[in-house]
Every structure is written in structure tokens, then in C-alpha cells.
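Incident review: delayed structure delivery

Summary: a single-chain prediction request sat in the queue longer than the usual turnaround. Root cause was a stuck worker, restarted by the on-call engineer. No data loss occurred. The affected request and its eventual output are reproduced below so the record is complete for anyone auditing the incident later.

Affected input:
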Amino acid sequence: MIGNPISDHLTYLFLGCGTGAVIGSVAIGLVLTHRASGILNLAHAAMGMYIAVAFYELRSTGDLILPILGLPDRLPIVPRPTVMTAMVACMVLAAVMGGLIFFFVVRPLRNSPPLSALVASLGLLIYLMEIVRLRIGSQGATGLVIDGILPSGLIQIGETRINQDRIWLVLVTFSLSLIFAAIYKFTKFGRESRAVAENERGASLLGISSKKVGLINWVLASMIAGFLMILAGPATRLDVNASSFLIVPALAAALLARLNSFLMAAFAGLCIGMFQSELMNIQVEWSWLPDVGIQQGVPLLIILVVLAFWGDNLPLRGTDSSTYLPRVADLKKIPLKPFALIFIAGVVTLFSGSEWRLAIAVSGCVAIIACSVVALTGFVGQLSLSTYAFAGIAAFMTARLDVLPFPLAPIVAALFAVLVGIAVGLLAVRVRGLQLAVATLAAAVAIEELLFRWPWLTGGDFGTRMPTPSLLGLDMSISAKGADYPRDSFVILVLVTLVLCLIVLFSIRNGITGRQWLAVRGNERAASSIGINVARAKLTAFGLSAFLAGIGGTLIAYQRQIVSARSFGLFDSMIVIAIVYLAGIVKPSGAVLAGVLASGGVLTVLLGQLSDSGSANQMAFSGLMLLFAAIRLPRGILGIEINRDRVKSFLT
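Output delivered after worker restart:
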């Protein structure tokens, strides 16, 4: 029996209402926080996810999970809380969290570089995702009993049946958008918020407290995110990754709304969710379409269109002072410290046990990928969230190029990553800063869903096995029996590759290309006025960054031996940017320190030996440290060395 095609399409469109409403609600929060403080809060969906998880955990156990490391994990509230009791407790928790984030993160960053604000939101995103895993187990919210509070029965619309909680979600989302639109247009608080958003200094001269306005807006945004995520729990299942990364389509919806209109943000989010759902139906009907997540390409397409036509007209919030990037120190010669550290790691490799050798290998691989971040962001000021996407492309292509000998196969595979990197880098010719970060964020998701779920490339759900690398008859693979794992030759290969990558970075930094990159980083118009081809400088930086990430990705693949679509995710790109920024994003030496700080690397082993719980808390602790670095150490840990002369003069 053949079904009604129109009814099938309507069914999928209505099924997308739930996700679309959630996307719209997150977009409303993005508009709200951006208008209040000029920050694109990448952690907004994660904030809502945490509050929703806390709500359903409270409903099940009577305990309120707390988000601060060092405090008790749980706070008993009542043995059998009602829906109202749990909702009130979680709304208070959301309000407190929004206030704390404003005072301890947003407010100190009001005059900081845009990069610092973006990195701080990344740190908050990492922290919230990890704290949920720590509080309710590694399985995340999948173990929760999610009993929705909206009516869940089926209703008939023509020939289509749909869960009525989706309709309620849409109504609630649009009601909130209308309420906020009215508040911002007709009330005194709305006028004050607009004044602060347009010119903070001018608003202060008029007697408007930007602190009060910002606090109220962030508290409201946090409460709305939590409230709507609670309502949407049955639709989203509160998966930690999926719920947190709803920020990507929400960014697309917010950009369509020009970061200004609440109603347009809600409507755009609803349309995106419905269109993505319909694309899933089209994939089923059109069997010739590849079985990949084509619906995840929708946010990227929208973001590209918005930036192409409106990129120059997107609102920028007035602040009290100009923004800047962390200063790059002058280098007259290549420093020896990072190479000495790598040499020590090589010696330790030859005389240490299996645990330390594996940690050194992991740190070395991550350090190579960190070199790509230093080249692009540290030297050129272009923030890309696609780093691990490039690494994954090279890794999977290496497996497909197993007919080529080592090391030719990984080099050719890295060149494929360069092609994709240059294609993504074309975005940088048109936009920069936060807009570029948003575009590359969507590009990373699109690559992960479109390319990494292509069975020919990645081997499907079971992944693909990497070929065994050998050089001049010497086995360079990681595999070995017993205590010989990992093989010394593989660890030395990683360290030698890291040395070569650092030499490339230092050489470029001290050469003509490096000076041109720094000029573009400082002021693109001034660089162009003295004859520097800005577009070429950006594209070459993206190409080199993709090549270094590709080399690091192939080594990670050789280290893991079997890689799948989940091996190179967006979260990994965020983590590597976080630890590089924490270490020192403007220094090649920062890449080495970032490798040490990486999960599974040297620091993980050290923390594991010092404390049973230290390594388990490492990712959440890294998120906190990243927040601290963004606020207090914009040059990173290694940047502290710049002030060493002042300390010496003070002591003497």
C-alpha cells in the first residue's frame, strides 16, 4: 500500500517542530545575550542542557546536582519533589548560574579581545558538558527518566498525526519571543538595554547602569534556556553532545535575525528544524542520496548566505575601549627550550614504562595539531573551529591511500586536507573574527556529518583500520606485545615530526611570510595599503594550518589503529583551541605545552599518579582554567614570561 506523499511530507515537517522550537529558543537566548553584552555565547545550549538534566535528576532522586567542582555533587531538596517544586528549584539554579557567569566571566571580559570572549564561552561549554558527565555518569542523560511535563498525546491535523507536545513547544517559544520583543520595544528596561548594546559609554553618561542591565539579561537568558530545554526533554533526550551542539543551527537562526529580532530568531529556528526533518524524509524517498547527515549542512548554507550578503552589516556592540589580540613577542633566533623538552621526552621514551610512552605519543600528536592552531590563530588572527575536521580528512585518506608507501601516503593525505582547508579559508577573505568562527563551526559540523559518515571514506560504524607504517624496513607502528607497547620507534617518529613542525613555524615566524601574516593580523587595511595581498596571506595560513592538522591527524590515526566517524569531532576542535589558548596561542612553544595539557597525555598520567580523581576531573578542570586564562591570562601560561623582567627589577 502506497502512502499519501503529501501526508508523509507534512508528518516530517511537523516532527521537526519540536527540534525547530528548541533551536528557536536557543536563538532567542543568543540574541538576548548578544544585545546585552556583545558576546556570542557558544555555551548557551549547554547551559540549558545542564538545567534540564538537573530538573529530571531532581524529579527522579530528590537531589539537585551542583555545577561547581569542589562542592558536594548533590544537594538533597525533598524526597519526592513535584513538578512545581523541581521547576522552582531549577529556575533558581538557572538564575544563580546566569548571574555568576555574568559577574565572573562576562563582566571582566567587557573590554577584552573578541577572541578572549569566544574562548571563554568555549571554556564554559567544555566545563558544563563535562560536569554533567561527572555528575550523572559517562552515559550522560541517556540514563535519566525523562517524563515530559507537556501534554504528550497524539492529535490529528488532516491526515497527519503529531505529538501535541511539539505544538506546545512552538507556542511557548513564539510566546516568549513576542514577550521579549514587546519588552525591548515598549519598556524602560528595553530602551536601556538597546542603549547599552549600541554604546555602553554613552549609556553610562546617561545614568544607565550597564551592570544592572547585563545582569538581568543574562539571568533571563539562563532561565529561558533551562525552562525550554526542560520542556523539550522528550524531544531532544538531553544527549550531552547533541543538545549542546544545537548551538550551531541556533547560530544560523540568530544570524538570520541579524542578532536583533526575537521573533525572527524563533521563526528561523522553527523553519530550520522543520527543513532538517524534511530532508530526512527526502533521504528515505530518494534512495540514490548517500546515507549521510545532509540535514546538518543546512546551518552552514544559511550562515554562508547570511555572511555573504549581510556580513558587513551585522551589529557590533559598542564597548568602552578598542579590542586587540594577544601580542606576539619578537623572535631574533629560534629558542631552544621547546626542543630541549622534546629531547628529554625522547630520552624518557627509551627508558620509561608503557604508560609514559603512550602519554608522550598522545601529547606529541596533539602538539602537532596545536601547531596548526598557532599558525592560523596566533600568527594571522583567524579563529577556525575546523581543526580536527582537517585532521580527520587526512587520517581517513591515509587509510584509503594504503597503496602508497609510508611516509608518502600521509603527506599526500595531508595535501587533501589542504584543499579542504583552502576552501574553508575562502570564508576568511570575506569575514573575520567571531563571524569566521561561527562559519567554521558550521563547516566542522557539515564535514563531520557529510564526509565522516560516508562509509567509503570512514568505513561506516565499524571504522577503518590504518595500514602499518614502515620506513626502510623498520616497523614504525605503535602495536607491540606486552610491555613493549607502544613501540619506541612510533613515539620517536611522533617527536621527530613535532620537531619538524616547530622548525617550520619558527622559520615562517622569522621570515617574510610571518611578517606579512602579523601585519594582516594587526590591521588588514593597513597591510593592504603597503602592498600585502591579504587574501593570499589568509589562504596560505589556512593551507599550512590544514596541512599541520592533517599530519597530526594521521599520527593520531596510526596511534589509535582503528578510526571511525567519532574519532575526529567538533568537541575535539574546541578542546585543542582551549588548551592552546591556555598554553599560549601566539607562541610555537605553546603548542608543545598544549600537548602536555592534552587529555590522555603527560599531565593526565601525572594527575592519575597523584590523585585517583584528578585525571577524571581533567576536562572540567581544563574548562575552568580556560575561563581563568581568557579573563586573567589573555597571552596564556607562557605569556607570563613577558613580565619576568619586571619581577626581577622589583626584587632587586
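Verification: Strands lie at 63-65, 74-76, 154-157, 160-163, 464-465, 470-471, 474-475, 562-563.
Action items: add queue-age alerting; document worker restart procedure.
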